[in-house]
Amino acid sequence: MMRNPEQTIGNLIDKQNVSFIASVDASGFPNMKAMLPPRRRDGIKTFWFSTNTSSERVAQYMANPKASIYFVDKRFFRGVQLIGTMEVLTDAESKEMVWLDGDTKYYAQGITDPDYCVLRFTAHQGRYYSNFKSETFEIYSLNHKMVR
Fold it and tell me: To 10 degrees, the CA torsion angle through 52, 24, 80, 13?
């Protein structure tokens, strides 16, 4: 069992330059997509990503908020999957919170671009893999309890 799961998993996440997010399509099948890392995270419970409002993934999350995100450390062959829900946010405060200089490359009209939105993922449980072992855990608030 990890001594400090939030720190161990948080460090793994912070060192990755690719995130994988999954949604559920209209037929009930999982759909996975590689994305840039989260723009912000609150522990290992809440994550914010930026994306295009017109994307297929946004439509899927609006129809079914069930989601998962995955981060992998290829160098040490370890990873973490978090399962939860994804919300599509279009309010100015959320958009301003994750906006970065240079985002006009993706959203030509700037922060008010109607094709710019924020995805907020809230984790409910996770599974961490390292050293040929997996650990499943539930997430409560920002603290979580490890479960085998």
Answer: 10
What single letter denotes the amino acid at residue 119? Answer: L
Q: How many residues does the chain have?
A: 148
Quote the pTM value: 0.91
Token reading at 144: 């979580």
Below-70 pLDDT ranges, the chain: 1-2, 140-148
Can you give the pLDDT at residue 140? 67
> Nearest to residue 1, comparing CAs of 117, 147, 126, 139?
147
Three-state SS annotation for the chain: CCCCHHHHHHHHHHCCCCEEEEEECCCCCEEEEEECCCCEEECCCEEEEEEECCCHHHHHHHHCCEEEEEEEECCCCEEEEEEEEEEEECCHHHHHHHCCCCHHHCCCCHHHCCCEEEEEEEEEEEEEEECCEEEEEEEECCEEEEEC
Q: What is the pLDDT of residues 75-96, one digit of tens each?
A: 999 999 999 999 999 999 999 9
